[in-house]
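ok so I'm stuck.
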Amino acid sequence: MASFIGVDGGASRSVGLLTDDETVLARCAVGPTNPHVVGETGCLDALRDLFETLRQRAPLETVQSIWLGISGVRSAADFALVRRVCETLGIADRTTVSDDLVLALASANAEKCGIAVVAGTGSCVYGVNIAGDTCTAGGRGHLLGDEGSAYAIAVEALRAASQCDQERGPETSLLPRIMERLGVSGFEEAVRWTYSASKADIASLAPLVFDVARHSDEVAKTIVERGGRRLAESAHDVALKLGLADSAPTTVLYGGLFEQSEHYFDLVRSEIVRRMPTARVVRPPVEGAVAAARLARERGAVREQRPDAQRSSISVPLTETSNWRSAQIDRLSTKGMLEIINTEDRKAAHAVEQVLDDVARAVDAAAEAISSGGRVFYIGAGTSGRLGVLDAAECPPTFGVPPEMFQAILAGGSAAAAAAVEGAEDDIQAGAEEIARREIGPNDLVVGISSSGTTPFVKSALDEVRRRGAGTALVACNPATADFPSVDILITPIVGPEIIAGSTRMKAGTATKMVLNMISTGAMIKLGKVYGNLMIDVQPRSSKLVNRARRILQELTGIDDQEAAQLMKQSGNDLKVAIIMRKLSVSSDEAVAILAASNGNLRDALKTQRR
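replied:
not stuck anymore, here's the structure
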């Protein structure tokens, strides 16, 4: 079986993973491999140790592809150095080399479009847009900045402690805490320590600074907040240069500093969102070495991948790219191909988990629209549009709501629900016309559904919705780009390449259906359409639903089936009215009035009467 190696090489430590498929066979951590920190010999020695450890599990000869993401590798000279190291190790023929900035984005499946804010011993902000344009801010070492890094924060703290010691600056707990940390009795000894301390040694003081800031030391708080602002400013600068500032870019906060301090993560995230309200700021779902292993599997080819390398002018959505796992699927047994599909399908739930905050905003917006007398519309083309039709159609029988409350607009009309209507998704005029025809207004919410995020029919519709002042959301399964429509809420569960390249009815469709389920179900729960987890607004119009209504009535009131049938008849087959009649011992008319006074909310109706 083919195996792969991914390496995340840092300035403080490096991690390598040996995998086959997605199973980790071996893991190894060694010292730094950044050539600017340890030189070519140090890089070679660390990587040799790493590969020697990994090869105990699988001979290097069986490794099909290797991805090295090494921090500080940016110039042609840097790549030449790492190439020499790979040649010495005998792995050059199957190794792809990149900066670790690529791994930062890849850790959130955003390597094709996104922004990485990296903060560890050093710091750097790197971004790429869908056209392949890249931009970097910082990352030139501690002498020229490294703003917001562990080193920069520690140096500011040392300076503040020094000034406090000489009574040239404000009092700060940093002074005694640093002396305690270094095991010295006077700050002069700390000064001597700095003469020989390495960059990593000094950076190791950063957690101490965060702890002092957490205990309300104003000097430490100022240092930490300044670092966070500078990182956010750099992220905003990169976004502006790449045209991503207004397009909800995926922004990954990556590195040891964010892992060490929850407060620093929250600080930088809030500063980024203040500058770019639509930005989707995330933690990396996986570590850099895992991302490197995935890239090794997907790339397979032997070539350098530099952040500033020339890329194709044709942008391809992630869901349209080839999936390495299924490259030979047509040669597998039936169960073999199903195992691959099943493995990939698991990614849908994980992808949705990563965007739950955004889905929650959509649920709240849908509930608010309905409460205000508005409606919720799904609009899409092809599979995406059909999923909207399915979810909207299920709301009336499930929650007892009128069909006007949740509506679906499908490119090509109702005929497209059963068969493809060629060219419908590209009809820009039709998208806007559908919005106008339904007289969508400020109280409504329109949810665009487009796996690519750029379907012309959906984009034109959402543009018209915004012109009319209604709420907008978009569900897409690709990283946000400048070509995405401008919306209030962007939901992007990134599922990666499909088993059949471009067949978004698979993972993308599964993730989209999960999101739509959450939006409609969540809104209905918030509006009192369930009691506990029971479907109390069920419309008993079939034998199955009649039996369901009786079971719910029996469960909530403790009566038998015969009594339940009689009570349902007396209530006019209204389950909530029947529940109120029984629990509050009132007539049908009284129950109807009580329910109306509580805006149809059963729990509120029962609480009101009990008071």
